[in-house]
Specification:
It is a single chain. Helices cover about 40% and strands about 20% of the residues. The chain contains 8 helices and 8 strands. It has a 4-stranded antiparallel sheet, with helices on one face. A 4-stranded antiparallel sheet has the order 5-4-7-8, with no helix packed on it. The longest helix is centred in the middle third of the chain and has 21 residues, at about 105-125. Mean pLDDT is about 80; it is low at about 80-100.
């Protein structure tokens, strides 16, 4: 990822509007390029300024569905026109040789559109917190951000024999743990990955998850305790019926 791509993702991150996949890409780039953190801070400050002093209130019913419907119905050409000069001088037809807007440019427009929606909703009394709720971010992504924001945030990474990696993120003060995988193979039909807290000699079931393109961000169910190891086994769909592992773990991450 180059700096321009990171800048575009940073706008979405400040609005808590990234998909789970883009959130993983963004966090990975931020870890690899700490010199880009200034952009992250600047966008976060801008989003906070927009919402400053506005008490969150319940949004009107159906506002999220209405907003998404408008986005879905807006032709791509119309979006391109909105980014051109007021007198249309910047518009160019395909015959002129101008390249059509690429994914990065479309994402930039979307990020600014989301920022504009945020400012409008704040102006009519709907705070940023209410908007975030409406965007329905996955619980695993929310938990990961809570952990990373905690003063006692910790993480540990293991690399598997096939080159896949698994990183456990946890915080004692938050009491949560999240597993982030990259390159983890999908399991056979009728199977799933199951999470476990290993407390001493006792495995404690902590939910199931699937991977998408080798990637997953999974929140472990239940409260993590100091010294727990985090393990993953392959179980039948829905998880082990006995509440105990039926296979050897494919991932084990000590946290102590």
């Amino acid at each position: 990822m180059n700096e321009k791509d990171f800048t575009e993702l940073a706008a979405g991150a400040a609005l808590h509007a990234l998909s789970a996949d883009d959130e993983r890409r963004y966090r990975r780039a931020l870890a690899e390029h700490p010199e880009w953190a200034a952009q992250d801070d600047a966008d976060a400050d801008t989003a906070a300024l927009l919402a400053d002093g506005v008490a969150p209130v319940a949004p009107p019913a159906g506002i999220r569905a209405s907003l998404l419907a408008q986005i879905a119905q807006t032709p791509q050409g119309a979006a391109s026109a909105s980014a051109s000069e007021p007198d249309g001088s910047a518009d160019e037809s395909p015959a002129s040789g101008a390249a059509s807007p690429g994914p990065a440019r479309r994402w930039t427009r979307l990020a600014f559109a989301l920022a504009a929606c945020l400012a409008l909703l704040v102006g009519v009394g709907i705070g940023a917190v209410a908007l975030n709720d409406q965007l329905n971010r996955p619980a695993s992504v929310v938990a990961l951000q809570e952990i990373e924001s905690a003063g006692d945030a910790q993480k540990a990474t293991v690399e598997l024999d096939d080159g896949a990696t698994a990183t456990a993120h946890w915080s004692g003060s938050v009491g949560k743990a999240v597993l982030v995988t990259d390159g983890l193979p999908e399991v056979a039909d009728g199977k799933t990955y199951e999470l476990w807290f290993v407390r001493g000699e006792d495995p404690i079931a902590a939910g199931v998850f699937d991977v998408d393109g080798g990637e997953a961000t999974a929140l472990l169910e239940g409260e993590m305790q100091a010294g727990d190891a985090i393990a993953v086994t392959v179980e039948q769909e829905g998880g082990s019926p006995s509440g105990l592992p039926t296979t050897d773990p494919v991932i084990v991450i000590p946290t102590a």
